[in-house]
Each structure stands twice: as C-alpha cells, then as structure tokens.
Specification:
- With 189 residues, this protein is mostly beta strands.
- The protein folds into two domains: 1-94, E3 ubiquitin-protein ligase SopA (Pectate Lyase C-like), CATH 2.160.20.80; 97-189, Pectate Lyase C-like (3 Solenoid), CATH 2.160.20.80.
- It has one helix and ten strands; from the N terminus they run ββαββββββββ.
- The chain has one helix spanning 15-18; strands at residues 3-6, 9-11, 23-26, 29-31, 44-46, 49-51, 64-71, 89-93, 111-113, 131-133.
- The longest helix has 4 residues, at 15-18.
- The chain starts with a strand and ends in a 56-residue tail after the last strand.
C-alpha cells in the first residue's frame, strides 16, 4: 500500500537501515537523512527539499521529481535517466553528483550551484538554459548535448567539443573558454 505524506519533516532518519515507504511525498523536508543504496523507485516527490542528505547509489526507476531541491546532498552515481520524465524539475546547490547520469533527459533550466559534477554523463541531454554556477565539470561527458543558452561562465574543469554539442547563445567567461579549445591542443595564456 502506497503512502501519501504532505508537509512532513524528517530529520536524521536512517532510511538505509529502516527502509523507505513507497508513495507520494508533497512539500516534505528531509534533513540529514541517510538514503544510501535505498530503493526509491516509483516514489513521487513534489515540491520537496533534501538538505544534507546522502542518496548515494539509490535506485530511482520511475521516481518522480517535481520541483525538488537538493542542498548540500551527496548523490553519487544516481541514474536520473531512469526516473520519471513527467514534469521533471529539480535544482542542486552545494551537492556532489559525481558519476550521475542525465543521459537523454530534458533538464531545461536546471540550476547546478557550487556542485561537483565530475564524470557526469550529459550525453544527448537537453540542457537548454541550464546554469552551471561555480560547478566542477571535470571529465563530464557532453556528447550531442543541447547547451543552448546554458551558463558556464563560472563553471570549471570542463572539456566541451563545440563540434559535438549545440552551443547557440551559451555563455562562457574569458577565464573558462579554454575548456572549448582542449580538442585543438590550444593553450590560452
């Protein structure tokens, strides 16, 4: 039986040990909770906020994220490409998303602020209007990615081949432009 929870606050819960009830969570707050390796498949999170939570290795098959905020969270290795695509909307601040996959997802307007996005897969993603503010994109994969109007002015450690992505109106700073030239072995000094 699926649960329905609204405006609930969960603090320091060890869901990795006690399990997590499948259901719909609306306007709920999760603070310092441990979800590591927990199966969240088919859950629905609407206008929820996760603060200081560990979601490393969670299964999120057909999980719905609608207006969800992640702040200071650890989300290592999540396969966002398997979550529900319906009304998908989330933002991330001061979080570690290394090794995650956004393969083929429409993540228009998503904000990544002060995040670690090392080795994240953005292959074939629609990242129109995405903001990578002060975020580390070391070894992130951009292949056939739509980066129209994306903001990479303060992003760092990225390597993007302009011939393999769509960059119309994407914004870069003079300090980060070298991430577009790596393929050509050009160094700016």
């Amino acid at each position: 039986m699926n649960v329905y929870k609204e405006e609930q606050k969960y603090t320091s819960q060890q869901f990795n040990e006690i399990g997590f009830a499948i259901g719909e969570y609306e306007q709920c707050e999760f603070i310092n909770c441990n979800f590591a390796n927990t199966d969240l498949s088919t859950c629905s999170f609407v206008d929820c906020e996760f603060k200081g939570c560990d979601l490393t290795g969670c299964r999120i098959d057909q999980t719905a994220f609608k207006g969800v905020k992640f702040n200071e969270c650890k989300l290592l290795g999540l396969r966002f490409d398997t979550c529900s695509k319906t009304l998908l909307a989330f933002s991330f601040a001061k979080s570690n998303l290394s090794f995650c996959s956004f393969y083929g997802l429409k993540i228009k307007g998503t904000i990544f602020a002060d995040c670690s996005l090392c080795e994240v897969d953005f292959t074939e993603a629609d990242a129109t209007n995405v903001a990578f503010k002060e975020s580390d994109l070391d070894r992130a994969i951009f292949e056939n990615t739509n980066l129209h109007n994306a903001d990479l002015r303060s992003a760092f450690n990225f390597q993007i081949d302009p011939e393999r992505v769509q960059l119309k109106n994407a914004r870069f700073s003079r300090n980060t432009i070298d991430g577009l030239l790596t393929k050509h072995s050009i160094r700016l000094e």
